[in-house]
Amino acid sequence: MPDRPGDHWDRKVANGLAFLRRRLSGDYEVDEFGFDSELTDAVFHPLLRLLYRDWFRTEVSGLEHVPVDGPALVVGNHSGTVALDALILSAALHDKHPAHRYLRLLGADLVFRMPVVSEIARKTGGTVACNPDAERLLGRGDLVGVFPEGFKGIGKLYADRYKLQRFGRGGFVSAALRTGTPIVPVAIVGGEEIYPMLADIKPLARLLKLPYFPVTPTFPWLGPLGMVPLPSKWLIEFCPPIPTTHLTDSADDPLVVFNLADQVRETIQQTVHTLLERRPDPFGP
């Protein structure tokens, strides 16, 4: 029987009230890391969907390289002054992957020292970027996302856009090797233009205990309006996975770890260059 006019909205209202009732009664589940899949699906992903689909006009390719089940370590380039790229990647991957998989993001300690931000990060599946947590997630068969450039990536000047920074000590590689998990490099183009960082006021950053204090064309000059990201065109491409099962005995070998980290970094850098050629206009359709 076809829906009558208004049935669609009646269902939406009923589902919304049921959701609120479960939240108020505590009738919902979170995992050992604090991940709340229901809240993520109902609140956070719809908001991010508006950004990646309508504002950034994001195109995603290479999803066939992300396994339908089982663990994988997704490694991406970091940029944008504010780490929106991690959130956009996780939402787009969940929506467009045939298995609608969640990406469990590893975040810096600073994220989990900020009261509200920490709670949101935990609820959406994030955890501290440390090997024990990464290995536990991979051991359970989760998709884990990491951005090894850290604050060096998101805090670089616009003049250095799309130049990948150093990948730290390769801790993410060790976690993959210990669990025999494939590494899936992912290149993201578009994040560098949302808040073009023209300068870093280091004394103010030290005063506020921040890794950097950005000056962009709109911030701090426009106040809160300066936090609206510019509508750049985004391209995300997942690269073929790099297997690690043959290297599980080399997790503590610095040379193997360094070489594999360098391979991942070079793969992402070359893919970024290719995507930039496909997107000559940063604000095009």
Task: Tell me what the structure shows.
The chain has 285 residues and is α/β, with parallel strands linked by helices. It has nine helices and nine strands. It has helices spanning 7-25, 37-55, 84-96, 115-123, 131-139, 151-154, 171-179, 202-208, 254-278, and strands at residues 59-61, 72-76, 103-107, 127-128, 143-146, 183-189, 199-200, 214-215, 235-238. The strands form two sheets. A seven-stranded mixed β-sheet has the order 1-9-6-2-5-3-4, sandwiched between helices. β3 (103-107), α4 (115-123) and β4 form a beta-alpha-beta unit. α2 crosses α3 and α5 (131-139) packs parallel to α7. The mean pLDDT is 90.
Summed up:
This protein is α/β, with parallel strands linked by helices and about 280 residues long.
From the structure above, extract its key features:
285 residues, alpha/beta, seven-stranded mixed beta sheet, two-stranded antiparallel sheet, 40% helix
Tell me about the biggest sheet?
A: 7 strands, mixed
What is the C-alpha radius of gyration, as a whole number of Å? Answer: 20 Å
Strand order of the largest sheet: 1-9-6-2-5-3-4
Q: For the terminal residues, how far apart are their CA atoms?
A: 40 Å
Q: Helices and strands, in N-to-C order?
A: HHEEHEHEHEHHEEHEEH
In the predicted model, the low-confidence regions spanning at least 5 consecutive residues are none
How many strand segments?
Answer: 9
β-strand amount: 5-15%
Structural class: alpha/beta
Looking at how many chains there are and whether they match, the oligomeric state comes to: single chain
Q: Kindly state the percentage of residues in helix.
A: 40-55%
Number of helices: 9
The rough form would be described as globular
